[in-house]
Amino acid sequence: MSVFKFVLKLILGILMTVSLLGFIAISQIQNTVLNKDYVINMMEEDNYYNNLYSNIINDLKGYIGPSGLDEKVFNDILTSEKVKDDTIKVIENVYSGEEKEVEIETESIKSKLNSNIESFLAEENLVSENKDALDEFENKIVEEYENSIIYSKYYRYAKKVTSKIDLINFVKIGCIIGFAVGVIGIAFINIKNFKKNLSEVMTFVFANGIIIKVVTLYITTKIKIGYITILNTSFSIVLRDVLQDLINSISKIGTILITVSLITIVLSNLVFITKDEDEKK
């Protein structure tokens, strides 16, 4: 084999490897992180909405001390159903591709809170001497709820990512084209030797499988996914499960690539050996 052919095959092989790895990574990310239904279902499975509801109530109670009020002013100001509906509304907005930011209905929360405060003051025979302070307290509670549902910084970052879905699809198509060019290029170089074509293509596929298994093993060894914590416990649980699911699915694809490529190489060699023996006879 000439040096030129060797270098050309090496370049085509690298192109195939990068393209296939890119295609697999993008496909799995689209099936998980960038899949609205997947994210919503994962939150449901991890009891995210109820956990978030409990977290919000506990966080709101932290405002009671400075206010001089009682925790019962938070009774029935929101429900886990509202938390779920508002969360799904935020998720749908993130994946909608629209520039307009989500708006959460909070007037009902403020109204109920105000009613509870007035009832508490009446029961305790107290008179509010500072209406501005109570208004500020109510506004702070509403703001806390909105922040707990939306996570403003991460929400805007997520919208930026999902707005690039068309670009991601373009890159995915580029990966398909790159892999096809690699296969066709190798086939053209070995145009008269189908067995060699198949073996070389499957060798690069095998290499992809090995790379995937090594990388996923390294990630699971070096990164303790089960201990990742962002924002709060409820969100962290969902994030851990999504990441673990993503890594597991990519690792399974690596196993499939290794198995299929090895079986194809072995069977192709057996077939062509048998064919050669028949021709000699």
Distance between the terminal alpha carbons, to the nearest Å? Answer: 30 Å
User: How many domain units?
Assistant: 2
Largest sheet: none
- Envelope shape: elongated
Average pLDDT works out at: 85
* Overall helicity: over 70%
Order of helices and strands: HHHHHHHHHHH
Uncertain segments: 276-281
Report the strand count. Answer: 0
Task: Provide the gyration radius in Å.
Answer: 29 Å
Please identify the structural class as seen in this structure: mainly alpha
Tally of separate helices? 11
Strand content: under 5%
Q: Could you walk me through the main structural features you see in this protein, from its secondary elements to its overall organization?
A:
This protein has 281 residues and is mainly α. It has 2 domains: 3-31 and 165-274, no CATH class; 49-150, no CATH class. The chain is built from 11 helices and no strands. Helix 1 (3-31) packs antiparallel against helix 11 and helix 3 packs antiparallel against helix 11 (233-280).
